[in-house]
Each structure stands twice: as structure tokens, then as C-alpha cells.
Description:
Elements: E1 2-6, H1 13-22, E2 27-31, H2 42-55, E3 58-63, H3 66-74, E4 78-81, H4 86-89, E5 93-95, H5 114-117, E6 147-148, E7 154-157, H6 168-179, E8 198-201, E9 209-212, H7 215-226, H8 248-277, E10 280-302, E11 312-328, E12 331-332, E13 339-348, E14 355-357, E15 362-364, E16 370-373, E17 377-379, E18 383-385, E19 388-390, E20 392-403, E21 413-414, H9 424-427, E22 428-431, E23 448-449, H10 452-475, E24 482-495, E25 508-523, H11 524-534, E26 538-539, E27 542-553, E28 557-559, E29 564-577, H12 581-588, H13 593-600, E30 606-614, E31 629-633, E32 637-638
Helix pairs in contact: 1-2
Amino acid sequence: MSQTFYIESDEEIISVIGHLRKSSQEENIFVFPKRALVLQSIINLRLLEREAGKLGKKIIIVSQDEVGRMLAEKAGLETENYSEDFSQKSSYMELTPAGAEPTQFLSGGGAVPKEANMPHLDAIGSSNFYVAQESTSGTKSVPAPAVSSGSGMPLRVRNTTPEKLTSLNSKRFDQMSALSGGQTPSHTSNVATFPAQFSFLPSQSSPPRLKRTSESDRSERLKNFYSGTTKATATTRWEEEPKPIPSTTVGKRARMIFFALGGISLFSLVTVILFFFLPKAEVQVTPYRIVQTVDKEFDGTAGGSASDENPLAVRILEKEKEVSVTVATTGTSGGTSQKAHGSVIIYNNYSTDSQSLVATTRFETTDGKIFRLESGVTVPAMTTINGKQEPGAIEAQVIADQAGEGYNIDATTFTIPGFKGGPKYDKFSAKSTKAMVGGGSSGISDVAIVAKVDLDTALREAEGKAKETFLNEVRDGLTEEEKILDDQIDIVPLVSPDLPSVGTVANAIDYNGSFAVRAFVFSKKVIKEKIQDASEKNIQGILFQPIVSSVTYADSSADFSQGVIRIRAHALVTMESDIDEEKLRGMLLGKNEEGIKQVLESFPEIKNIQVLFHPEWFVSSIPNSLERVSIVTLPGEDKP
């Protein structure tokens, strides 16, 4: 069974929650008129839904207000559209104060005894339980409650299908006359009786009030609700409305939420007004720009510190680098004789490591004839096959060291004179499988030989490779402010390689050498600072400040043996006129266009000035507040 509550349009959420708390039914129907105050706020509806959850009750919102129903559904409440037959299918229950008993009155004004109102035990559970019971004295009593709510409050259950009253006003007049001691209606005897749909509710402070719950009255009241009528009419039922239970917690929370939202809205509005409507000014100034040329020398000593006598501190980096380069020979045989040539197989019977042999490596026969490798080769290492060590072998081309038919020798064995005096001499050997051919004294020779320029080229390329390797390694370890002069690198050979002599027959030279590479390291930041300090600052009465410097180094010299370097720096220093922005901003406050021109005369370092106003449609002068004025310095322009 459910209980229905009709809510006034201006009734607040606290009152609605009071109805819900007093209800003894699990399902409660709240009927709201259009534009009811509670249905206009999602917060109110959520408070109502949360209170129903606490009490374990179900709420159904009935209204013709579509927006209100939508907000109620969003708050988690069940809704239903009001229809004409709603009152026909709705059950109705009314709360009465705990401990109160329904009272009947005799026509003379006396109360019917309590025992006369008690229903018979044999009527409980029957279909006519809610019909008035006949007392032992023959009087007819009004319905009395037979059930109670969980909170101990008795419930008065009224018939949901009362009889239709054809003349409601005349019946009410008769009933009111009975209450005031007037003429008793003809259908009563000693006790004033009323139809089953009427009852008296006791009150502690006043006589009982007549309570009518007819279907026509309920329908008429709903029509009044939805038509916006709030005053009682002649057909409105008299009803003692339950007083809402105050809820300080809900009230405080609602007020806190209201004030918080109001504060946020007010703050946002003020912020928008301050941002969009308070005037601001952006002053864009353009300084003068000049470029100066500065040449300066610096002396640095390794291990020293910056001072007047030693203006530049430097340090020396040193590394040892091993390099290997191959250079093709450019020389040719100067005679008309030809040299014998052929192929040999070179054997490594020494170790499990391979052995590299450079071009022009000598091979000697048992009778002292010398042949040389035409190009460098690597002899493979020894290998083990079936438990037996086998020497590494490779075939290479050789050419006689001298021209003549005497070098056209048959197949023979060779030794390597370069290994003489060491363990490799007996373990490395070569053997030809065919006779050497081509030796003679006639014809034109086209055999390449080593020239002096080839040896110089090999040394230069080896030093260049050592320098490049050195710079790539040390630059990774330098900071952004450190620098090395590439043209002041010291490269010293540590080991003299075994190079062929000039005129030796060879197609290429293999240069394998080791070098000590050294360089001075200094701070380019210190050099820039000293150059900027040396630049002229005051030009034609205008103070300039350096903003960028471009430095190049030329004609420098270094003595690594003494640890001293002299650096000659050539710099282009870009400078801009110095503008006191704070002073300018203070003088511009409150100035219009004419006042700005007068202020500009006091700043000869400014080439141009432009003021941007915000908002621009009604502001024509700079604000008087420093916080509303900003200075922006643009890139400088050349001074004429």
C-alpha cells in the first residue's frame, strides 16, 4: 500500500522531507503542481532521494511538469505523468499523532465512550473491516485505526472508493450543524454520525477538525494545484496538515552549497569584468642597434690562471694515436730493362695468429736474389686438422728487386730478411711453384716504383688521420664554452715505420705509425666577455649594451715545449641602446598621445614607440596603474 502527499507549489524541500519521515508506508507518492519550487532544483531532488534511501522508502514523483520530472529522473527518482484517473487508482493514508484515539461526539456535545469506537475482533481481516462497527448501545461509530506504523504512530486508513455525494454542500451544512449543536440529521439518533469517508482527528489544543477525503474533492484539489490556485475554495477539504520536521543538517548543507556556488559565480563574474573591461596598455619600444669591430690578442700559459699578467688560462690535451694508411706509388722505372716477376706461396708456421706483410716486403733466395711483394697481404694463422697443425698459407705476387735476365729463376724457396734475428725467421717462408719470367734488358718498362713524393704523401696522410681521430675524441669531452684551435695541433711521430726506399718497385706503400697529438684548450666564453668589455659603450650620448658577439681566430701561434699560446681574436659585436623600462613605464602612466610624445623626447635611446590599448574601442590613454601597463622591447634597428 502507498501513501499520497499533495505538495504546494511554494513548499520547500524540508517540508517534503518531513512528510516522508512521518509516512509509515514503504511506497510514497508526491504530487507536485507545475513550477513547484522543489522540482526546480536538482539539489533538492537529490536530497529527497538520499533521505528516502536512508529510510528505506520508495518515492514516486507525479507531476505534469516535464522539466521537473526530467530532473527527478536524473536524481534517481521514479516519475509518473499526472492523468485524470490518477486519484481513482491511488490509495490514501493519513498519519495521526501517536497515542491519539479517534473521537466521536454525541449530538449534545458529549463524547462517545472509547469502548464504543473499538472494532469487533471478528471483523479484523474481513472485507467490511473499514466500515463503521455497531456498538453495543446501537450507535454507529466512525472508522478507527486497526494498524500502526513502524514508528508507533497509528494510521487511519480510509476507503479509496467512497460514495459519490450528490449534494456535498448541503451534507456539509448538516454535518456542521450537528457539530455546533444544531438540528440532528434525520438518519441519526442519539449520536452524530457521518458518512464513512469523514472522520474526526483529535487535537490537544483545539476541538477536532472535520477531515474530508472524497474522490471529487481530491480531484478538485489537484485541478487547483495545476491551475496555480493556492487558496482554499468552498469545496476544499479541511485538513490538519502535518508540520514538517525541521532538518538542520539538510538546511545547513543546502545553504553551504548555495553560498559556495554563489561565491564561485561572483568571483568568475568579477574576474571577467576585470579582464575584459578594465583598461590595459602594452608599450612596444624599438631601441637603436649598432655593430662594432674589435681585434684583441690573448696570451695563455698552460697551468696558469687568468690575471693581468696572464689574461687567459689554458690547458693542454695530449693523446697517443696509432694509424695505418696505404698510398699508391706514382714513380716509374727510369731504364729500359725489365724485371722478372711471378708468384709465391707464403707460409705461417709460427703461431695461431695471422701476420700482416706490407707491400715491398723482401723475399730472398738462397743465392741472395731479392724479390718484393707488389701489394700488402695477411698470412693466415696455423690451423689444426685431424689433430695435426697445418701452417697458414696465402699466394702473393712478387717482382724482382733488380732488372735483368738473371732473375728469371726456376721454382725455389724464399726467406724473409726482415724477420732475421727473431723466432719468425725460421717459421715464415715462401715458395714459388713456377719460374720467374719477364726479366731482360730490352723493351720499355712500365713497372711502378716508390718515389720521394709517395713517402711524403704517406706521412702527411698518416698525420692527418691521427689529428682527425684525436679531435673527434677530445671534442666529446669538452664543455660548450671550451674550444680547441684546429690549426694549432702538434703531431709528433713516436715510432719510425719500415718504409721502402726511393726507387723500390711497388704499386703501393703501407704506412703504419704511432703519433703523439697535443692541443691547447681555452674558454671562448672568457674571450667573448673580454671583447665585450673592451667595446665602446657610450656613443653620441647614448648608452649601448652588447647582445651578441661573433669571434674568429686567425694568425695564432703555439709553443708546446713552453706551454704557451698566443691567440688573436677578431670579433663583430652587435649592441643595442639600453632602455630603462621601469623609468619609462612610470613616466607613461595616465598619458595620452600628446603626453607619450613628450615622454619619448626624454629617451633618446628609443627609436620608435607604439602603444596597444585593451580594450581598444574606448581607451585612449595609458592607465594610471603600473600593473595594467607592460613594456615589450622589440629587436633593435640600425642607427642612421
